[in-house]
Amino acid sequence: MALKKFSFAPGIVKETTAYANEGGWFDGDKVRFRAGLPEKIGGWTKVTTATYQGSCRALHEWAALDTNRFLAIGTHLRYYILWGSQIYDITPVQKTSTLAANPLTAAAPPATTITVHDVAHKAAVGNYVIISGAAAFGPYAAADLNREFTITQIVDADNYLINGGKAAASAVSGGGSTVTLTYLIPPGLDVAVPGTGWGAPPWGGLPVQTGETAPPYKGGWGQPYYVTGEGTVPVNQIRLWSQDNFGEDLVFNIRRGAIYYWTRANGVNQRAVPLTSLPGAPTPAWTPLWAFEVMVSEVDRHVIAIGTNDYQQNFLDPMLVRWSDAENIVDWEPRRDNSAGGQRLSSGSQLLGALRTRQEILIWTDHNLQSMRFIGAPYWFSFNLIAENVSLLCPSGAVNADGRVFWIDKNGFYVYSGQVQALPCTVRDYVFHDFNYSQSWKVTAGHNHNFQEVIWFYPSANSMEVDRYVTYNYVDNVWSIGSLKRTCWLDHGYSDSYPVGAADGYLWNHEKGDDADGVAIDAWIESSDVDLDDGEHFIFVRRTVPDVTFRGGGNAQSLNLSLKFRPSPGVPYDAPVTTTVVPGTKYCWTRKRGRQMVMRLESNSPGTSWRAGAMRFDLQPDGKQ
């Protein structure tokens, strides 16, 4: 018998059938292609054992003037800064209240709740409140009271409940005469929820606290309420953040919410404050009250608000772009002696996202892509239409990579390198026909520069959270797919230049080690059908000579090589013949026949990393029936 070498074409191809894609790869998970060959992806470990609350939807890294490095973390519940190995909560304050004497009432047993009396509190279930200045009473020491609580129930406009964790002997009031309440900004949604009319916020929904900067919307009572655009479907969208560093400080905002500022000199134990409250802000009528996104231009250092309220207006304009004076975060009033200004884009109905690139800022509307460039006095910025009939699926769906911009739209992938081009995608149908569009704003794009990859993490049709990814290698022009929960991604990462992904309350260093935080990774890839003479003859495979290189750090690295056969297309495969490949394996016995054959490589042992090349099969024709 003669050995026949099979070199499979790189990339996963699912736009055709497995039989039509003969000589290629058809499916896989946690396997990438590099230099045309498949290999298991790297492992991941925790960046720090410190955790955050909520689903992370934003990451931003920057360095201070003293070279200290910081990482901003935005979740649907809070906003944090990672410094060193510790995570600090800098979630802005919504309002503070100074209460009358003895405003706290411990419930009668066996309940462990405390009623808080705050006139016209305008709070909601799930809001966070910090109590300070309270004196001991009932079963509670001062330390039991002076901390953060979550509001569990609204009693009425002046009272709500928190869980104190202790049962009193009887109902009793106390707390003293110096109780102060600090309300953090309310949490956002973690799951997008369809909502229209009076039953959606703000009417009949989450109450607006005093001082909250929830933007008013045009339209009458009972009309659809759009938190963010979803075409013709009104949706109460998830909490998203945008952020950028202004020098060593941080400016950030909730999408369609207020803009906040964190001053590095004040330290990591100080919370961010509204931009409108900074010293030198002339009046909130000039400073933006709300924005879709906020960023800082690269060279001239204008703070730019994408989708904001106009000067001295109190409603949000979804097509308006405004910028501050250069090097001045509080001066937004356009005057002859400064460079502040604004421009309303005319094509489209709302701005979906923006991304700073080399020498320009790209802005996507729901109908086109536009360019914003700094041009100097007297107009400061120019706006030009780049392409029509393209859009952006979600605000986090675009990423810079290799001097180009890649992004995801409602049914395809695109690249911009001076002009817009659709990316030919060999897994397009697979991705978009098993996609949860109701949760599409959870999609996040990332770049892994060490492997020349652009990654999109997305929710599959039956998942309410991100559970899959699709990867494009822009050097080899090949695609791969897999399953992995990552709600956010940062290329260079916070330490050691590893990419950082966020999921399940932790930050993860990727491409570090071979395993998933000490647990073996199940990685596999499966070929399309292979036959002889276009399926004219059955083939008998006596043995396989594997071409596998092991590169992991484990002492017992292994890979399962499986062959499965069927007599004709459309017929189920026979039970696979599986053999184990280890370093030094010369060949694997098969002794199986069929008209079509599929090969599968799979590893799930700790410390294993592998790369596969051309396989050789000891085969011969074995008749026509």
Describe it for me?
The chain folds into 3 domains: 2-43 and 521-621, Jelly Rolls, CATH 2.60.120; 46-86 and 235-510, YVTN repeat-like/Quinoprotein amine dehydrogenase (Methylamine Dehydrogenase, Chain H); 93-184, Beta Barrel (Elongation Factor Tu (Ef-tu), domain 3), CATH 2.40.30.20. Helix content is 1%, strand content 44%. The strands form 13 sheets. The protein has an 8-stranded antiparallel beta sheet, with no helix packed on it. Strand 33 (398-401) and strand 34 form a beta hairpin. The longest helix is centred in the last third of the chain and has 5 residues, at 428-432.
What's the SSE blueprint?
Layout (H helix, E strand, L loop, with lengths): L1 E5 L2 E4 L11 E6 L1 E4 L2 E4 L3 E3 L9 E8 L5 E7 L3 E5 L2 E4 L3 E6 L5 E3 L6 E5 L10 E5 L9 H4 L2 E9 L2 E5 L8 E3 L5 E5 L8 E2 L40 E2 L4 E6 L2 E6 L4 E4 L10 E2 L16 E6 L6 E7 L6 E8 L17 E4 L6 E7 L2 E6 L2 E9 L3 E9 L9 E4 L2 E5 L4 E4 L3 E3 L5 H5 L11 E5 L4 E6 L9 E6 L4 E6 L4 E3 L9 E4 L2 E5 L12 E5 L11 E7 L2 E3 L8 E8 L10 E5 L6 E7 L1 E8 L6 E3 L2 E7 L4
Summarize the structure.
With 625 residues, the chain is mostly beta strands.
